C-alpha cells in the first residue's frame, strides 16, 4: 500500500499525480505489516508506473443533491446499474472534464484545488443562493457558491454550466447568474447554457416545463446580450447557448467564429456548426465513383433538418447516391427527448424494421456507451444488425467521417 511520497500522505490519484511529478521521489509503502522506503530518480512528470485497485485510488464521490432537473431520476427502471450512479467528484472534473456542483466539497478540498492549481468544471445553475437550494434540493447548495469566488480569486480557471429550466432559472434569474459570473472574469473561462431534458418518467417529480420556440428564442437573446458585453470587455463571448436552443427556436446556427475555440464543445455547443462546415469542406474536394449506393442515416428528431440538408447536398452532387435520413421518435424515454445521443436500439429496430434501408445504416457514436458497441438499453450494434438484416456503420461527430460513410469510403 502506498503511504507517502516525499513525506506527503497520499489519499487519492490527485495527491499521487501532484507529488510524484518531482525528479527525485521518495516513496513510503506498507508491506507485510512494515514500512519500506524507495528512492526513485526520473524525468519530471514521468509516471512511477504503479498500479492501483481503482483509477481514483479511492471510491467515486456520489452526488448529494436531488436536483429537480436530474436526468438520472427520470430514467426508466431495470436498466444497468451504472446508469443510475450519480457522481459529483472534483477529481473527475480535473481528470475527465466532468462537471461538479461543489456541494460535497469541504474548505480543505477547495484549499487543495487551489494549492495544486487544478482547473475544474462547475455546474452553477444559478448564483441566487435560495434558488440554488430549491433547484438542487440541498440545503448547502447556496452557501457553497462562495467556493467559486475563492477559486477564481486564487487564479483557478473554471468552465461553468447552467442547466436552464423555464420559469425557474431562466429570464431575469439567468441575467443575474451571467452578471454575477461575469464579475469573476477573467478566471471564468467559459459558460454553457443548456436546456433541461424531460423524459416520460417523471411521476412524483417536480413539474418542469420544456423550452418552446418562444422561450428558447428569449434565452438566446439574453445570452447574446451578455456576449456583446463580455466581447467588449474581455475580448471573448465567454457564454454560449447549446445548439439545441437554436434548433428549438428555429434560428439559423451561428458561424464558426461565434464559437471562438469551442470551449464548451462537449456540452453540445457548436457541434452542429463544426459538423456542417467540415461536411461542406469535405464535399468540395470529395471524389466518388462508386456507382449506385443507397444508405440510411438514423438521427434524433431535433437535428434531422441539419442532417437531411447535408445528405441531400451529397446526393445532389454525386449521381447514383441515395441517402435516406430517418428521424427516430424516442418512445423509450418519451417524445420530449429529441437528441440523437439518447436513441436506443429498440427504437431503431421498431422504426426501421420492414423498410428498405439500403446497403448500410449509419448511426452516431453518441448513441453508444463510450468505447463500446452497447446502446443505453443494453442491446448491441450486432443485435440491431441481426434484427434489421443490415450492416451498421458508426460515425463520430465529424463532417469528413460522415461524408466518407455516406460514400462508402
Count up the domains.
Answer: 3
Radius of gyration: 24 Å
Fold-level CATH name of the largest domain: pyruvate-formate lyase- activating enzyme
Termini separation comes to 51 Å
Q: How confident is the prediction overall: mean pLDDT?
A: 94
- Count the strands? 13
User: Percent of residues in helical segments?
Assistant: 25-40%
Per CATH, which architecture of the largest domain?
A: Alpha-Beta Horseshoe
* CATH-level-4 superfamily name of the largest domain: pyruvate-formate lyase- activating enzyme
Give the neighbour order of strands across the main sheet: 5-6-7-8-9
CATH class of the largest domain equals Alpha Beta
- Main sheet record: 5 strands, parallel
Structural class, by secondary structure, is alpha/beta
Low-confidence stretches: none
Strand-residue proportion: 15-25%
Question: What would you call the shape?
Answer: globular
What is the H-and-E element order?
A: EEHEEHEHEHHEHEHEHHEHEHEHEH
Helix count, per DSSP?
Answer: 13
What can you tell me about this protein's structure?
With 409 residues, the protein is α/β, with parallel strands linked by helices. The protein folds into three domains: 58 residues, no CATH class; 195 residues, pyruvate-formate lyase- activating enzyme; 134 residues, Rossmann fold (3-Layer(aba) Sandwich), CATH 3.40.50. Helix content is 33%, strand content 18%. The protein contains 13 helices and 13 strands. A five-stranded parallel beta sheet has the order 5-6-7-8-9. Strands 2-1-3-4 form a four-stranded antiparallel beta sheet, covered by helices on one side. It is globular and about 70 Å long. The relative contact order is 0.08. The mean pLDDT is 94.
